[in-house]
């Protein structure tokens, strides 16, 4: 199984902090899983211009091809102006409309206020559904008060992060079993 952790912003530290915790949880609980962290702050991405993702070069090609090769993606995103960052939206624009078909996608969201949970429900989930993702229904929402000096200090958040990783891996296994049964129905 290939898991990509996508930190969807070029600025700030909270989302990357959350993704680092998620990376450590994933490696600890599932040592046999191939895990890749893509932090968009570390790449020089070009804006989508309508080409197929495999026609781009450099960092853009690497990031999009890594996402397309994954079985599951855990997206980490801050909330900017009650919306997703442009860097994350650009990733969605670079990929084909069915980029997440047969992929499980889960989410961690950082925000300054509890009211920003609506961004996930009204913007991020509809985009992922449109791109054919199997969406993990629950997500981890982390507020400003849950951080102190670039550390997550809320034990409940850490518990929910562990649960999110578990749920993500279990959902991948479940969909894989379903696909196997469906494939066997064809008899070839």
UniProtKB/TrEMBL annotation:
The organism sits in which domain of life?
A: Bacteria
Which InterPro entries does the annotation name? Flavoprotein-like_sf (IPR029039), FMN_Rdtase-like_dom (IPR005025), NAD(P)H-dep_FMN_reductase (IPR051814)
> Which EC numbers does the record give?
1.-.-.-
> What keywords were assigned to this record?
Flavoprotein, FMN, Oxidoreductase
**Gene3D superfamilies on file:** 3.40.50.360
Question: Does this UniProt record's set of keywords contain Flavoprotein?
Answer: yes
What would be an example GO MF term here?
oxidoreductase activity
Q: Which segments of the protein form a coiled coil according to its record?
A: none
Return the SUPFAM superfamilies for the record. Flavoproteins
Domain NADPH-dependent FMN reductase-like residue range list = 1-144
Protein name (record)? NADPH-dependent FMN reductase
